[in-house]
Amino acid sequence: MVKSNQESEQKNLIALLQRQNISLESKCEKLQTHLKTLEIRIRDLMGTVEAKIKLINDREDAKLKQEAEYESKLSECQAQISILSQEKEHLRHKVIRLNLNAKGEGGNTIDNMIKRISRETSNLQTEFEHLSNRHDTLIAENQVLLKKLTEREKFADFMEKEVTRRTEEYISMTNTFEEFIAGRAKQSRKERAKKLPKLDNGTENSRPSEYAASMPEKPRSATADFSTEKKQELERGKLYLKKFKTLSRAFATGNFRILPSGQINQTSSIIDAVPGPWQKTALYSKMEDANLAMAKLYKEPVKTARDPSSKPTVYSSISEGNCDVYQTFREKNFKLILSIKPPTTKVYTDGKQVDIAFIKQVKAQVFDSKFDINKQVLVGKSIPKN
Q1: What is the pLDDT of residues 54-71, one digit of tens each?
Q2: CA-wise closest residue to 241 among 185, 177, 198, 182
Q3: Which of 2, 10, 138, 365 is the most buried (most CB within 10 A)?
Q4: Are strands 334-340 and 344-349 parallel, antiparallel or unpaired?
Q5: Region entry Disordered: which residue ranges (predicted)?
Q6: Strand pairing partners for 353?
Q7: Which residues have C-beta within 8 Å of that of residue 307, sequence separation ≥ 6?
Q8: CA-to-CA separations, 203 to 87, 215, 218, 364, in angstroms, rounded
Q9: What are phi and psi of 105, to 5 degrees?
């Protein structure tokens, strides 16, 4: 039993080994066939590699040949470049020499010296012409500036004379107006003194006799002539004040266009119709505009013979009460400052107070002008005139 089991086991083992041997032999055959195919493939690849190596070697040989050719060509080009550079330097020196010879600086030969002298002479001639032209230009500018300076000096003299003339006329006008107002007030007082006793004949004095003076009382019955004369006198005074104000404004601003000729003629005829010492030739009947006077810079106005006792026919009024009028006349840096401070006087007429403003004091500050050429300004010095 044991023996049979051993024999069966040995048979099974032998069968198994045989089957394994058969499978291994089949595998060996397969590997041998695969090895043969690999050897064939390796031989093919080796042939391809050898062909490529040969091709690469051929290409390298061609490149080496080309490099050798290029090196030879490069050496030839460098040789040509060196030759051309030498020729260039030679030509450069030759051109420089020819240029120097053309300018006359190549040497101290007669031709070169003549060329240098002629060139310097032409340069000097050109410079001399430029300087002469500049000199002529400066002379012309100097003449123009001298002419302008002369014109400005004449203008300054004219303005000084014009300021002096206007100041004198203004002072004369104010003095005349003061005299006129004083005369009118004096005349009105005299007329009133003459008429008051006539009006008080039928009345009794209600004041004690020991009083030295008394205010005149309003009459019980005023005549039509007295009231008419009083109204005319007041109208004339207002007319004089209005004209004086207009003329003062025209004098202060330098614009005499505000005085229309029709108004002047009309008022002059009215004033001339009034009897009195003021019927003289008008001082300001023919006044030119300040702009027209400025245009005549170099023609000094002819001074007409003036009557010291003459009175102006054109007046202007100042508002009732104390007033300060400060007007600045500026024209081409010249200044005329007029300061007018008239007090108020009170005239008693028939128990009523009538305020009449008139000029009592005139102060003029005239700037003594000196023309500065460098700064082109006017340096003023204040000179008060009483």
Answers
A1: 999 999 999 999 999 999
A2: 177
A3: 365
A4: unpaired
A5: 183-229
A6: 348
A7: 280, 281
A8: 146, 15, 11, 52
A9: -110, 10
